[in-house]
Design brief:
- With about 625 residues, the chain is of the alpha/beta class.
- Among the domains are: about 10-155, 3-Layer(aba) Sandwich (Rossmann fold); about 180-320, Putative Large Serine Recombinase, Chain B, Domain 2 (Hect, E3 ligase catalytic domain fold).
- The protein contains 20 helices and 19 strands.
- The protein has helices spanning about 10-20, 40, 45-55, 80-90, 100-105, 110-120, 140-170, 195-210, 215-225, 230-235, 255-265, 310-320, 360-365, 380-400, 400-450, 455-485, 490-505, 510-520, 565-600, 610-615, and strands at about 25-30, 65-70, 95-100, 125, 130-135, 180-185, 190-195, 270-275, 275-280, 290, 295-300, 335-340, 345-350, 355-360, 380, 520-525, 530, 540-550, 620-625.
- Strand 13 (about 345-350) and strand 14 (about 355-360) form a beta hairpin.
- The protein is elongated, with a radius of gyration of 38 Å.
């Protein structure tokens, strides 16, 4: 509670002082949370009574009383103290009276600076119980009192920090305010409960992110639907006490940083995260971020608002930047397409035709590099058709042969598990043997150094190399062993994908949420032309392999559900189409040769009609899908 005001009689005193052009006396009181334990001696009422009696007895009238209730003396960003300093700057203060010097503050350096400021401005400082009055001369023990007050604050800070460390290590949340979407249990302040109204907003934010919206777009949608922002909502329902939150001009004005903060909170997946930030000093109020590997995370401590799979998916989507261009909508395929040769992501281009090319090829050409990756050109339309076809065929197979699907995934997972265990075990044994060899080499090297066989500089250089290699080997062993320890037989993959299939009942078109939830990645291979020659390229039929990896089941090949007759009809139709295309290409070539033969010597090849030039480069495209 902040109580920084003029009482009625103090206002009258101030008006009288203004009329007589007199200076005021400030009676300053402060009470921190720790001081509340001693209500009799440090309460605001007690301080007020002592200060008013002193002011009347020593004719320090008129006076005003300024209070900081609930503020630590280690901080100087107190509303009441800021008001004191503003009045000092205005120049009509004759004295500042406090009960004890530690009521003024618990930083001996800052206390000394303020006392020097008061002395220069001719302002009298009085600490009643400490018998300090600057009008009576210097007090030799004044610096020691200020240092003892600071030590008291430091000692309290250590105690509070120790208590928070103990609480945080026990799995309880140390945050004083639960995140938006939760509220404290009235019977247990360390337990969080679901806030139904706020939870719906949080889930909507996660779902909008999966649908391809960015933080700024989400803010715009929430504002249009008049959704109250977290600070206003929590203050309105009494969950927190934010100063001025209910006085906001627009309670529906969301900030993109607020949406980002919500999307990053692991608490929404049902976990408790402690020690995200720290303070460099008990005197500082600045929060310094702690590296993520130093966070203390306790799993499944409260009811989750979103599933772990949803939270992980959102983090993955946010790692890929999707910028809007002239079309006005970011391509949802961005971040999913990978080059089969260099492993880089594919760039989206929309100037002429919506397509993707390898980022290694695009950036290499822009930087005039002599060697760079090939284009791996593919259109967005073709990719969307392929993905929709793969998902539809897989879903149809699951609907008719669910038991067979689960068995195939189980066998595939078992084979991968056995192979992983073999490879990891082999690498761990190899690293351990090398570590033993390095220990022997180091001992031999040290003996040579003692005997004087090698120079000191050479010994230091070689020993540092051995130690670095050992450290890398031990780190790799730790990583591999951790994977082996946590490697378990995965029967949940098939169930998870089946749940996704059941979530989407219609597969007529590829929607962004379906794309983000069901597709892990798409690997694009370079296209191959049927009539490609060293001198003439890009002729004939264009074939391109595209590998589709689905969530949980990877590069799963769904058996063809069509009958033999249907497959044969499609094969005949495809052969007929290819023959027609080949005839078209041959006709275009003959027409081009005839035009060239009929041209006069003065004519130039560039004068060939546009139609003939287009026919000359006519080709067809055929995509081979490997899923």
């Amino acid at each position: 509670m902040i109580n920084s005001r003029y009482p009625t009689k103090d206002l009258n005193c101030r008006k009288e002082a203004d009329m007589n052009n007199q200076k005021l006396t400030i009676l300053y009181s402060r009470l921190s949370v720790e001081d509340e334990r001693d209500k009799e001696s440090n309460s605001i009422t007690t301080q007020r009574t002592i200060l008013e009696n002193y002011a009347k007895q020593h004719n320090l009238i008129p006076y005003v009383h300024i209070v900081d209730d609930g503020f630590s003396g280690a901080s100087w960003q107190r509303p009441g103290w800021q008001e004191v300093m503003s009045k000092v700057e205005e120049g009509y203060i004759q004295a500042v009276v406090v009960k004890n010097l530690d009521r003024m503050g618990r930083d001996h350096l800052r206390v000394g600076l303020f006392m020097e400021m008061f002395r220069e401005r001719g302002i009298r400082l009085v600490a009643v119980n400490d018998n300090i009055d600057t009008d009576m001369g210097e007090d030799d023990f004044l610096p020691f009192r200020a240092i003892m007050a600071e030590w008291y604050a430091r000692d309290n800070s250590r105690k509070v920090k120790s208590a928070l460390q103990s609480k945080g290590r026990s799995g309880k949340p140390i945050s004083t305010k639960p995140p938006f979407g939760f509220k404290k249990d009235p019977t247990d302040k360390n337990k969080w409960l679901i806030d139904a109204e706020a939870t719906a907003v949080v889930r909507r934010i996660f779902n909008l992110t999966i649908e391809g919206y960015g933080p700024f777009e989400i803010c715009r949608l929430l504002h249009a639907d008049k959704v109250e922002r977290p600070s206003y909502y929590q203050a309105k329902h009494g969950h927190v006490n934010y100063s001025g939150a209910l006085e906001a001009e627009d309670p529906y004005l969301w900030g993109s940083h607020t949406v980002t903060f919500i999307l990053e909170r692991l608490e929404y997946a049902g976990h408790t995260v402690n020690f995200r930030t720290t303070k460099p000093s008990f005197k500082s109020r600045k929060q310094v971020p702690v590296p993520q590997d130093e966070w203390v995370i306790y799993r499944d401590t409260h009811e989750a608002i979103v599933s772990q799979e949803t939270w992980d998916l959102v983090q993955k989507l946010r790692q890929t930047i999707r910028r809007k261009d002239t079309v006005g909508v970011a391509n949802p395929l961005t971040g999913l397409l990978l080059c089969a040769d260099c492993g880089r992501r594919l760039y989206n281009h929309r100037k002429q035709r919506d397509h993707y090319t390898c980022s290694g090829y695009t950036s290499g050409r822009q930087k005039f590099q002599e060697t760079h990756c090939s284009p791996h050109y593919v259109t967005s339309t073709a990719i969307r058709e392929i993905l929709l076809d793969v998902i539809k065929r897989t879903a149809e197979y699951i609907q008719h042969h669910e038991a067979d699907f689960i068995e195939q995934i189980r066998q595939s997972s078992s084979l991968r598990q056995c192979e992983t265990i073999k490879n990891h075990t082999r690498q761990i044994n190899k690293n351990q043997r090398r570590i033993v060899e390095l220990d022997k080499l180091f001992r031999s090297l040290y003996e040579d150094k003692v005997k004087g066989s090698i120079l000191e500089e050479r010994f230091v250089l070689m020993s540092e190399g051995y130690e670095q290699e050992q450290l890398e080997l031990k780190t790799q062993i730790s990583t591999l062993q951790s994977e082996l320890d946590t490697f378990k037989y995965d029967n949940e993959k098939a169930d998870n994908f089946i749940a996704l299939v059941r979530k989407y009942t219609r597969f007529e078109e590829l929607e962004t949420p379906m794309l983000n939830e069901m597709v892990e990645k798409v690997v694009i291979h370079e296209s191959i032309w049927s009539e490609q020659t060293p001198t003439e390229r890009r002729k004939g039929t264009r074939n391109q392999q595209i590998d589709v990896y689905l969530k949980y089941i990877g590069n799963f090949v769904a058996p063809d559900m069509r009958s033999a007759e249907e497959i044969e009809v499609e094969r005949i139709a495809e052969e007929k189409r290819l023959r027609k295309l080949a005839q078209k290409r041959e006709s275009a070539r003959r027409a081009a040769k005839r035009k060239k033969a009929e041209a006069t010597p003065d004519d130039n090849v560039d004068n060939i009609p546009t139609k003939t030039k287009q026919q000359k480069g006519l080709h067809s495209t055929s995509v081979n899908i490997a899923i």
